[in-house]
Write a structure and sequence with these properties.
alpha/beta, 2 domains, binds zinc ion, 17 strands, globular, TIM Barrel, Urease, subunit C, domain 1, 414 residues, 8-stranded mixed sheet
């Protein structure tokens, strides 16, 4: 396959040229940076007319539901949403109704994930006292919850410290202090309006501080990673200790002032913060202080959101457009940041064999962006089964229009 007449992100610069993808090996065969390509022997030629090829994206934080919750999302629909969002690998969180904490439950999700073509799905295991011991040492991706959230599988910081000595993989931690949540629940009724007060900023800071204290003096084999950080203070603490973390698109592009319009569609854990905090987070992003973005794609049906006020929002398909729109006009400095947080750093953290660069003999995992394309977010247009978005009605400029995984097209709007 020849992708001709493209802009190519190559060696951290934007060049004009052409990319040849070998559909049999799934690798990038050749990159040509000349104006013309000459005669091509390729069967399939796509004229990109200047659209930009970047490395495909990796999302380390998704909830793909399926199994007992297939009415919200299945691996098939989640993978299609991922491909439409420019992703070729996504990591599925383990807090399902039947949690992924035994070899039997892991085998079930791996078998299902292996059938999916449009995106690679890699499962996390759940860490708590019920987790099968061999899984902790053998499976490289694990998630621990310090605060109650969907599924309510709580672990305390001392257990996370022990798990870090047993696992040589990545342990992602949901940092909200459960004691503080419980004591806040005595002060505030659990209404939608009080959600941000019950899970206030201190809830996050306390959990992070306790976790860092508990893990400071131990010799860890595993890598600690903090999920969905929402505060500049947390970012500064984690940078000072050189701990990995991610930020979600909703904490970058929404704030609690949006709740009057969003209602329960703006409910998630941790909750949206103030407009000022959101501004600080966006500044941190543009100053390259955020190492990773994870969507925390967490679909529920609209009915469930309204009736049960469940926490979580979908985000796979809107993540890249939100960033591109915010970064317009897209200069190479801002593009480099986007590629770092969504392509290079997630692969490095998760120790994937590919690096997230465009070069000959690298896997042909590519996303093509139309920087000029303007589209309004409409839930009904999304591939996610839940068919709604907290950014409904947003007009965004810059969209992925073609996703290629292992040399095969997984999504195309061309
Ligand atoms: Zn999550």
């Amino acid at each position: 396959m020849l992708l001709k007449n493209a802009s190519i992100w190559y060696q951290e610069q934007i060049h004009h040229g052409h990319v040849v993808v070998n559909e049999v090996t799934g690798l990038i065969e050749r990159i040509s940076l000349s104006k013309t390509f000459g005669i091509s022997s390729e069967d399939s030629v796509i004229d990109l007319k200047g659209k930009l090829i970047i490395p495909s994206l990796v999302d380390i934080h998704c909830h793909l539901r399926d199994f007992e919750e297939s009415h919200k999302e299945t691996y098939e629909t989640g993978a299609l949403a991922a491909a439409a969002g420019g992703f070729t690998t996504i990591f599925d969180m383990p807090n399902k109704i039947n949690p992924i904490n035994s070899s039997k439950s892991l085998k079930k999700v791996v078998e299902k994930a292996d059938l999916i073509q449009s995106c690679e799905i890699i499962p996390y295991i759940l860490l708590n006292r019920d987790t099968e011991a061999s899984l902790i040492s053998n499976h490289p991706y694990a998630k621990a919850y310090l605060g109650k959230t969907t599924g309510n599988y709580i672990t305390d910081v001392s257990d996370v410290a022990i798990f870090l000595t047993q696992s040589s993989g990545v342990i992602a931690v949901h940092c909200e202090d459960n004691n503080r949540i419980n004591s806040n629940l005595k002060k505030f009724h659990p209404t939608l309006e009080n959600h941000g007060k019950i899970r206030d900023s201190q809830t996050e800071l306390l959990a992070i501080e306790n976790l860092l204290e508990a893990t400071e003096d131990i010799v860890t084999k595993g890598k600690l990673h903090i999920a969905h950080v929402t505060l500049l203070k947390s970012i500064n603490i984690l940078h000072s200790k050189a701990i990995s973390f991610e930020v979600t698109p909703h904490h970058l592009f929404l704030n609690n002032g949006d709740l009057s319009q969003l209602g329960v569609k703006g409910k998630m854990n941790p909750p949206l913060r103030s407009k000022l905090e959101q501004k600080k987070m966006l500044e941190a992003f543009l100053q390259n202080q955020i190492p990773l973005i994870g969507t925390d794609h967490a679909p529920h049906t609209i009915q469930e959101k309204e009736d049960l006020e469940l926490a979580g929002v979908p985000g796979l398909e809107t993540c890249l457009p939100l960033l591109l729109d915010h970064c317009k006009p897209l200069d190479v400095r801002k593009l480099n940041i986007i590629i770092q947080v969504l392509a290079i750093n997630p692969r490095a953290l998760m120790n994937l064999s590919e690096k997230g660069i465009i070069a000959a003999n690298e896997p042909a995992n590519l996303t093509v962006i139309d920087r000029k394309k303007i589209k309004v977010v409409r839930g009904e247009d999304l591939k996610t089964k839940c068919k709604w978005s907290p950014w409904e009605g947003y007009e965004l400029q810059g969209w992925p229009v073609l996703t290629i995984r292992k040399g095969k097209v997984t999504y195309s709007e061309l």
